[in-house]
Design brief:
The protein is mainly α and 208 residues long. It has two domains: 51 residues, no CATH class; 118 residues, no CATH class. The chain has eight helices and two strands; from the N terminus they run ββαααααααα. A hairpin with a 2-residue loop joins β1 and β2. The two termini are 35 Å apart.
Length: 208
């Protein structure tokens, strides 16, 4: 079932309306037997083709990500840090996968352990702090926030490897320690500069 009837608040009160998520909406477009839908179908085919090429050659995905960030007005220096952060994150999640963590809730818990250790906030708390909703938190971090996030994740990856940790409880302990390393660095920077690293600033106004 693509569309699901849900109660939606309207001017005339709550009414049942057929609703679909993004995937469902795209599937509906594919099923429309009309020439007017052809441009959308061709676009979907191109997107699918591009993703297949990126699977075959991951460098294409990195290039596409860089172009997207440039189009949104991010500076090159920030883009390089963001791309490096993506690589560090991928290395970490590969370790989690190979060491027994379950993708989804356990990845989220481990991520929160690192962020909480580094910034004393979980991912959701950090997003609220920056007035974000569905946006990607890391796309709204400044240079030092990105660097400290990388430090926490890279340290956690190294601890996993050095200890050969396996199973969620041990991985969680490592994540807490990795986050604490980044947290210590953050506190030292704040002590020396007299300024907080975590800021409410985001790139929402810059992104068009």
């Amino acid at each position: 079932q693509i569309a699901t009837p849900l109660l939606v608040e309207t001017a005339g009160g709550k009414q049942k309306m057929n609703c679909a998520n993004t995937e469902g909406a795209l599937r509906l477009i594919q099923s429309i037997p009309s020439s007017k839908a052809e441009p959308f179908k061709r676009w979907l085919a191109k997107v699918g083709y591009d993703r297949i090429k990126e699977i075959e050659n991951p460098e294409l995905a990195a290039s596409r990500a860089r172009e997207i960030y440039r189009s949104k007005g991010y500076p090159e220096s920030w883009i390089e840090k963001r791309m490096r952060g993506i690589e560090v994150r991928e290395s970490l999640t590969n370790e989690w996968k190979n060491r027994g963590a379950k993708e989804g809730i356990e990845y989220a818990i481990l991520t929160n352990e690192i962020l909480n250790g580094a910034f004393e906030m979980t991912a959701e708390e950090y997003k609220k702090f920056k007035s974000l909703k569905r946006e990607n938190l890391r796309d709204h971090m400044d240079d030092l926030e990105l660097i400290l996030t990388m430090l926490g994740e890279a340290t956690t990856t190294k601890i996993h490897k050095d200890r050969n940790s396996k199973g969620f409880p041990k991985l969680q302990k490592d994540a807490m320690e990795g986050g604490a390393v980044a947290g210590s660095a953050r506190k030292d920077i704040e002590k020396r500069t007299g300024k907080k690293i975590s800021t409410k600033k985001n790139f929402l106004k810059r992104i068009v």
